[in-house]
Each structure stands twice: as C-alpha cells, then as structure tokens.
Design goal:
mainly beta
Length: 140
C-alpha cells in the first residue's frame, strides 16, 4: 500500500474513511472544525491563503472571477464575493491585483477582506491598514 502526505486546508469538506481489518466494514468521518459556523474566512487547496496577512497568494494572471471563487472554500454558510477598488462587486471578467475578496459570516455579523497577490503583477500596492475595532476609510 502506498501512502503519501498531502497538505490540505481545514474545512468541512474533509472526510476520512476508516476501513476495518476485515476489509469490508468502513466508517466515513467528516471533519467539522469548531467555530466555523460563525466565521468569516476562506480556505483553499489551490491558492495559498495567509489568514494573518489577509492575503490570497499565487493567483495566476488572467484568472476569471468564477475561477477564483470556484477554488475558495468559505466558512460554512458564509458568502464570498470579489470587490473592485471602487467597492463594486466584480461578477464577471478577470481579477486584478487591486481587487479584494470579501467574506461575510452566515449570521452577517463578521466580515473579512482578503487582498490578492496576482502572479506576474507588481505588488507594491500592499500598503494598507486593517482593524477589527475601527472602521478604516481607505478612500480618505
């Protein structure tokens, strides 16, 4: 039997199949991390998501909005959308370096904004401030 280790992000989409020694009896377990249902975050097995810096890394240049969102896994019940630099939702076309991904928790009480690091595009725009305590007006 060949075993391999694969890095994966924690989400409720992770299942473990345990097979008994008789080879026929099996049980499937679902991984349900605590505190996910009131959270506002995304994970991904395709993109590197830096939760501390609120950054989604390694987004290929020319990635469609649909392609980005397809490979992001929001917390259960949370909604996710792409916002352009003017605050408008980008539903079609390709994402660009100054777009943001905004996640809203199921209960609507928490939001988290992620910045994008698009490959082959300069990233000198990443000077920003975020706060969980204060409203930050980035246009002022």
């Amino acid at each position: 039997m060949i075993h391999s280790k694969v890095d994966a992000q924690v989400s409720d989409k992770v299942f473990f199949e345990v097979v008994a020694e008789n080879g026929t009896t099996k049980i499937i377990y679902q991984l349900i991390p605590t505190l996910m249902y009131d959270g506002a975050f995304v994970t991904s097995d395709i993109y590197e998501v830096d939760q501390v810096r609120s950054l989604i890394n390694y987004v290929p240049s020319g990635t469609a909005v649909y392609g980005l969102l397809k490979y992001l896994v929001p917390a259960p019940g949370a909604t996710v959308k792409v916002i352009d630099k003017f605050g408008y939702e980008r539903e079609f076309g390709t994402v660009v370096k100054d777009d943001r991904v905004v996640v809203t928790s199921q209960d609507g009480l928490a939001t988290k904004t992620y910045f994008l690091k698009v490959l082959n595009q300069a990233t000198d725009y990443l000077a920003y401030v975020t706060s969980t305590m204060y409203y930050v007006d980035e246009d002022a």
